[in-house]
Every structure is written in structure tokens, then in C-alpha cells.
Amino acid sequence: MAERPKDSLKFELNERLKTSIRSESYGYVKVLTLYWTEGEIGFREEAQEFGRFVQDIYGYDVEEFEIPTLMSAQSLRGVVLNSAVAAGKHAISSKTQSLLIIHYGGHGDKDDDKHAGQERRSVWAAYAVGGPTLEWYKIQEDLMDFDIDILLILDCCFASQAGRASDRRTGRILALAAAAKNEKTRLPGDDSYTQGIMREMKKLVLENGYTSTLELHQRLLSRKAGLQATPQYIPIRLGHRDNDIRLTSTTVTVSTSADVKVSGSLLRFVLRTENLDRETIQSLMTWLGSDVPVEVTGMEIEEVLVTTKGIHNFLKRARLEETPLSTAMDDSNWREITSAWDRVLDLFHQYDLNSGNDESKERKVLVQNRIESFLSQLRSRNDECLDAVEHSALAASDNLEDFIVDQAIEDPTLQNIGIADQLHLRRIIRSEDTWPGQEKLSGTSAVVAEYKPYSPSRDQSDMEALTARVSQLSALLKANKKTAFRSLRCCGWEDEPANNRFILYFEIPVRFQDPEPEYRSLSDLLKNPRNLGRPSLDARLKVAHILAKAVQSWHNIGWVHEGISSSHILFFVSHQIRAVVYDEPFLQGFDLARPNVAPSIGRYVDDITFNVYRHPARQGPSREGHRKVHDFYSLGVVLLELGLWQDANAIVMPKRGERLEVSTMQEKLQAAARDRLPHYAGVSYEKAVTACLSGQPAVEKDDRNESELAKTFKKLVIDELAQGVRII
């Protein structure tokens, strides 16, 4: 046999590039968890736990559905097919693959009464004996018409009866079934099939960075999994690819260290095109922005371009008035958005990244530096464009009927760029709906608990209003939101009248879960720095920028915090390295937080520990209602603490015989910022802190959404903080 030429690998790679083969990751993933509304105890809680698990570990969108006992099949068919339609539309519009995951926890019916014409098909039941049933196999047959991948996770008896083969479509349908046709599986608990699934999924993600359904099934077959029944792996429809689905996170983890180098082999691809015009650029972004295999370690270019592509798709549809928000945006909104988008496109014309025939080392270094500069500026201009779209979308939503806003929330183009979640949060804030009652904590997982005391002398009407506020706050903190908000997800709340307090429960992120999870407030770390070490200057500057962006995110949707202090900034401790994870602060303590539509007076406590963070106008019996500018002041105090790594109470502590007035406290904080911060944290950092402490972000004239205030805060605080830290 003749020897293959030396460049055969290059030839094979080029041949493969000529074909359009999509990778194993997905542009859209939806998880649907199903359980009976009147089913046996445990199924609801376990389904909800599974939903939270996949949301945390993969970042997937999760929807719960309680199967009613009346018109069960009809109701379930509508929900399942609507989810499949949404996934199918996204696959077509984005030209990426979509995945629908359906988890069912409940009973199965043997369906073996031959006299009644039963054929041992997949039938679900609300109870082990008696009660309503539904013919799942009929709904499953309807799913065969969709060109999407579908993963069924069936935790019920006789689960493998769902198996039927077909190859009519390109998408795959696979089933992970808890038991064979003649087997029963365990009820919800530590040894249930769903618990086994979650345990092994977590291990695979930690080991490989993703979950292979084939490898997951192999592990579930092992005795170590501790399952009673024999799990089944059923390729219901193979499509045109193999019978393995790979689950990966929808978020990309970016190193926080500028010194980290990407390891592994480097393959450089040369792209040639006749014309490098804007249309060609969009085509390249569509191609480069598609799914990338997990084996590829360098994701920077692709992720930046995915964002650019998402913005472009929104603008293209909005200009054709194909989005629910199109008609509600006024001319000023469009000018702001198109101006920001033009700056994105102009960037491509400013950079000549072609090295030509010059292959010298110096020329290659120059081109590499220009590429890095290009990517950095592209990311920045993407953010500016997203800010413009977000501001315009939120402002426009205030003038629309609720059903139109709901349509916008379901719009795939808005979901892709994160605006749909913002609209949902604004919807919660503006809504006059009655929020759900108490959601007491279920399960044994560790949580972060926050206690909200109230006066025992409150009358009934006050308690009803306060309870409604806590319920709304819980709904807001539970809803999906981008990481920039830096808040833990609320998983329940309850009223303790005996102790005159509410309790809010927050989930601990999966990456920090441990048999004995540990976290510290910034206040604790400032007072006891020796136990876990002090952060570097770079780390402190990064935390400051993250917190300022978090406050900006909450204000953008119309919500003020009202309790920003070092006691309400949390950091988790990594037990692996026995150190505080400083680059992931969480903003908690939304004790008195409320919409910015009406000022809040709140309860006043004359305590220096709290007063040091309060704006002077917010102190004393005749204080003003809380506004965004008051949050800025509180943030400034926290930023001062970070810059000096010193507790604010120590900064303002009066000398012997000195009377500490409100004005004196502010003067001491401003003096510390002016005299000490330039040395400890830099001039730009000092400017940002001084702006917060002196009330500079305030403006005289503004619209009802305080757009000018937001711009001023960004310019005087966020942009100045960014000068002192390399934002990755």
C-alpha cells in the first residue's frame, strides 16, 4: 500500500471542513419536569430537585408541569408539543441543534390487559393502584414529527415500554428508563433512579466537563449505583447520528487569571473569501458561532462571535417588526441601538489582521497582539450594544399589555441574548398579581438562610402588605437571571410568627456544595483576615467591579437593594484549596428591597454599624425614602472597605470625647477615600468611590426609568473601576 503523503492530515481536515457537520453541543436546551398534581408524596419534590440540579450544573432552562387528574393526556400533550415546537423553531432560526429533555417521576401502568386491547405500551399512572392514567405512547408518537434531539428520563415502573424504533427524522430520541418492562422501581428517596442519575451526572461533569448519556447509563448499571431495578437505555429513534447525547453547560467558564495559558495542540485554520464585506462577516459569524466540540479548549473567538451573531439576529427581526417589542420602541431607542451596532461592525473594518507574505516573528507577534486587541474591543462593543437593547426593551415593555410582554419573553432571539430574562424580572416587579404563599424548605440539602425580623406589634394590614412583599421578593430571587446580578437562587421562604421573623432560603451553587459548605461575609473577612488569607489588589479590584455591575443590573430592571453593606456580600470557601473564592462574590441581604416605583421609609435603627452604610438623607426620624442614589452611596462605602481592606466602622470610629454626627461620618469616609485610596487602589478607583460617596451620579432631569442616572453611574463609577482591573 502506498504511503500517505505528509500533508494527509491537513487534506482530511480540509475535506471535513467542506461538509457541514454540527457538533454534539446544542444551541438550545429545554428541560421539562413532569409529575402528577395529586400524585404520591415525594415525586413533586424530587422532580423539582432534578430541575434545580440541571439548571445549576448545566445552566438549562427548566419548566415544571403538574399533570392534572382531569383531561390529563390533553393537558400534557399541549405542554409537551409546545416545548417541542419552541425547540424546533429555534433550531431552524439559529441553524443549530436543539435538545428537549423530558423527566417524568411517577407511577407506570403495566398495560397488559389483553381483553381490553392493551399492548404493554407506555402508560403513566397517578397512583400505584387505581386512579387516573394517561397513554404516554400516543404523545411520544407525536414527538416523532420533530427534527430535534429528545432525551426521555423515565423514573417509573415498566419504564422501558416506551421503546419504539423509527428513523423518519434526523433528530434522535433516546430514553433512559428506570426499569425493564416487567420491573418496578423504587419510590422517591436516596436510592431512587432520579437520585442515581443526579449523582452520576455530577461525577461525569467533574471528571470530563460534560455528560455522555451512554457513559451515564453504563455507570447506572454498576452495582455501585445501588439501584434496585435494571436501568434501560433505549434508542427510540437514531436519526442520522450515533445513539449518544452529550450534555454540556450552556455557559463557558473563563479563567480569571490573565496568566493562564491554553494547553493542548494548536490547529490553525486559514479562511479565504472573495470579498470581506459585512454580509460575508455575518456568514462567518454564523459558521464560527455554531456549536464547538468539548475537545476544543480555545473558545474565546467563538463565544464573542456568538454574542455578536445573537445581536444581529435580533436587529434583523426587529427591523422587519417580527418581534413583539418592535412597534413599542421609539426613534430614540432605535438611534441608540443602531449607533451601538454600527460601532460593532466598524470594528471589523478598523483591523487588518492579515499578515500578508511577511512571516517574520515580529510580524506574527504584531498580528497576534492586534487580534487580542480586536477581541477585547469586540467584547466591549457587544456589551454596549446589549446595554442599549436591554434599556430600550425594558422601557418599551412598560407601555405594552402583559400578554405582549409574555410573547417577548418567549421570543428565541431575545432569549439568546439574555433580554428575555430581564423582561421576566421586570414583569415580576410591575405585576399586581398575588404571589404564591410560603414555600417551606423541603429536602436535606444545605442552604443559606436569611432572617428578616419584624415588629410583634404590627397590625393585620401591615403584616399582609409585608408578607406580600416577601413573597414577591422570593419570586424575584427565584427567577432565572444572568450571572451579573450576583445573587443566590431563592428556594423557599416561611413566616415564623413565634419568633417574629421571615426566613428566606437560598441554594448553594453546585460547585460549592459540600457536606459542610462554608461561606464568609466581607465583614467577617475584614475583621478576621488571618484565618483564610487576604485577597490580592487585583482580586479586590475585580470584586469591586463585579459588585458595581451587580447593582447596575438590579437598578436596570427597576429594583433597589436598600441594604448594601459588607455583611451582605458573601464569598464561598473552596475546601479543595482551603481558600476564599474571591472572584465570585454574591450580593445578598435584600431585606428591605423593593421596586423603585415608590420610595421606602423602612424601619430606622440608630446604630453606627448600620448607619455607616446609609446615605445621610436616609438617617434620622425624618429621613427620605430610599432611591437608587442611596444604593450608590452604600456601594461606595463597601468599595472603600475593599480598596483599603478595612472595616468602615473602624474608619469612622470617633475619638474619645468626639460626637459622631451624620455629616462627620460622611466627611471621614470621603477623607479616607481622598487621602488613602490613590495609594492603595489607584486614582481611577478613588474617583469611582468619591463619586458614590459625594452623590455625583445624581442628575437633575431624567425620565421615569432614570436613564440619565444609569449613564452617569456607568461613566463615573463602572468605567472608572474598569480602568484599574483587567476585565476578562
From TrEMBL:
InterPro entries: Kinase-like_dom_sf
Gene3D superfamilies: Transferase(Phosphotransferase) domain 1
Superkingdom as given in the UniProt entry: Eukaryota
Name of protein: Protein kinase domain-containing protein
